[in-house]
Design brief:
By secondary structure, the protein is an alpha/beta fold. 43% of the residues lie in helices and 9% in strands. It has a five-stranded parallel beta sheet. A two-stranded antiparallel ribbon has the order 3-4. Helix 6 (165-174) packs across helix 11 (269-281), helix 11 (269-281) runs antiparallel to helix 12 and helix 13 packs parallel to helix 14 (333-351).
Length: 384
Amino acid sequence: MDMEVFREQNKRNVVLTGPPRSGTTLTCNLLNKLPDTVALHEPIRPFGFVSPQATEEEVLGAMARFFSRQRRNIRLRGFAETKHMGGTISTDPYAAERTRDPENPDSEGLRYQLVSKGSELGRIEMNGDAYSAGFWLIVKDPATLTALLPDLVEGFPCYAVTRNPLAILASWASVNHAARDGHSPVAERYDSALSEMLAVEEDRVERQLLLLDWWYGRILEHLPESNVIRYEDIVASEGTALAQVVSRTANQVPLTPLDSRNLNPLYARSEMRALGERLLESDGAYWSFYSRQSVLDLLERAKAPAYERGWADASTGRRANPRVGPEDGLSGIREEIDYHSGFGAASSILLAGDEPLEDVKVLDLIPPAEDLPPLAERQRRLIP
């Protein structure tokens, strides 16, 4: 294989990866707004893609054939195969609320995929006439492509999206995803050393930290800094930080107003505090991308008084305050948002059947002697 010719032929076939819940799906959504560009969300069937013992040439060949097949389907047959919701690639495949699995009443309150397991990968219609023969095609898959990254970088342009490690851990804790348990079946299939390391670790959070270290370590070892894009920069730049992925300038990328989800109300603050403490005590490749101070700053912002007051009100069954503040109920917009985010987060947990009350007791946000309604009554008060 002539690698120089191979790389030239694949210069518009882009590999995109990053840890799960780092913003890679959002990245696909934003890239799809660009002309002559298609970004696919986890279109690879990983367990039949290549053998775990595949050589570099076999990996590169399989990836090149995959790109070619998708290109033919898009331009000549009018469809692409990808994970999607109703024919589109959204910004987030998980629900914006934490609920119990209706088929498993004893499950924890988590965010579940909006599309049923097994049905999310399928065909979406494409207008083949809208794309040139050399359109940009980006394929995103956090586990498969990170595991194969050492080989893929030899033949394809490769990029990774990263995110504050505490935000990633908090997101893992909120979703029905294997990473929540500190595992990645696909990554472990391709990396036996990772599989063996996770198998002997009994502590779930420690497994999560080992897994996160593996993801960031892979990126650190195989990608130059210029090919690593921080989620925080994507949000701050309103998407223009992605211009480099498709060889465009920032002013050629449409601005998309974005809000950071690093303090998503669905991330239980008690979980964030516990995860933050463990994270700060750990060593891992993620510290090559984010400072410990960035985690401390996120923890401090998670302790915003307005947020905690909202959490306390929902936890104890009080009605939400339409306005909050130190004087006559008036305050800045930011404080209002923080308050209602806290109220919404605790409401979701309470309605899912869990008990957020202990968190506000620990924070001394309610008088110790206060007579509080039972869980069922507080749940009823929150239902409109």
